[in-house]
Write a structure and sequence with these properties.
The chain is an alpha/beta fold. It has eleven helices and five strands. A five-stranded parallel sheet has the order 2-3-4-1-5. The C terminus is likely disordered.
């Protein structure tokens, strides 16, 4: 008799997980074998899972990962590119993000840098951490736009609050000196507050030439490299069927 009013109240309270569990229990005759606390525990557990899944979906949406389906579980260790399972296991728990350390992934085109970066971003979202992905050329355009419309200060504060900030393909396209100075400000604001993950086709030793301004390059390297995990990949492109390992 109380079924419909109870359901309506659960829906009004946005307790969708509890509502789903309650409706399932109504359809299961065997549920009567459990006592009240056991049945109530199942309802509460469903609400907890519903809330966690909803929060994860929101974090993944906000992260805007380029490869949304990328996960560490699906990494290919068989392809000869220098990816070591032990390195990934160090990064899997996202403790490095919580410790505000950085990660730098370098290697030629096609060795899976973006996939690996997105997989680490996906893991951070699963671990409850605020994450945001940016393709480096788009980040520089966004910084230019923020200069133009006066929103730079507010935007920098938003980026500073992220637990993990992913910048993919740094150095792929030419950037102005001011844009690298803006990037330095972004990185500087995040010191002690969050982790930054960068990917680049260029080895770290070549970043001075890529950035151009020696002073800015020195400052960026000082802030990014000293506490960073470094994954240096190599080998042929994984997109080339001829380079795939035989089964």
């Amino acid at each position: 008799m109380l079924a419909n009013p109870t359901s309506e109240k659960l829906r009004a309270l946005r307790l969708e997980g509890m509502l789903e569990a309650l409706e399932e229990q109504r359809r299961q005759s065997s549920i009567r074998e459990l006592d009240f606390e056991e049945r109530f525990g199942l309802v509460v557990e469903r609400q907890w899972l519903w809330k966690e899944n909803r929060a994860l979906a929101a974090r993944l949406k906000n992260a805007q990962l380029k490869i949304a389906h990328a996960t560490l579980e699906d990494l290919n260790y068989r392809h000869p590119r220098g990816l070591k399972r032990a390195q990934i296991e160090q990064l899997r728990a996202s403790a490095w993000v919580q410790e505000h350390r950085n990660c730098i992934i370098t290697g030629p085109t096609g060795v899976g840098k973006s996939y690996l970066a997105c997989a680490l971003g996906h893991q951070a979202c699963r671990d409850g951490l605020r994450t945001r992905y940016f393709y480096a050329p788009k980040l520089f355009r966004a910084l230019e736009g923020a200069h133009a419309d006066g929103s730079l200060a507010r935007w920098l504060k938003t980026l500073a609050r992220l637990d993990l900030f992913i910048i993919d393909d740094l150095g792929l396209a030419p950037a102005k000196a001011r844009q690298y100075r803006d990037l330095l400000e972004v990185v500087d604001d995040r010191i002690g507050r969050g982790a930054t993950l960068l990917t680049s086709q260029y080895p770290v030793a070549q970043w001075h030439d890529t950035i151009g301004d020696a002073t800015v390059a020195d400052a960026l390297l000082d802030r990014l490299v000293h506490n960073a995990y470094r994954l240096e990949l190599d080998g042929k492109s994984m997109r080339d069927p001829k380079s795939a390992p035989a089964d």
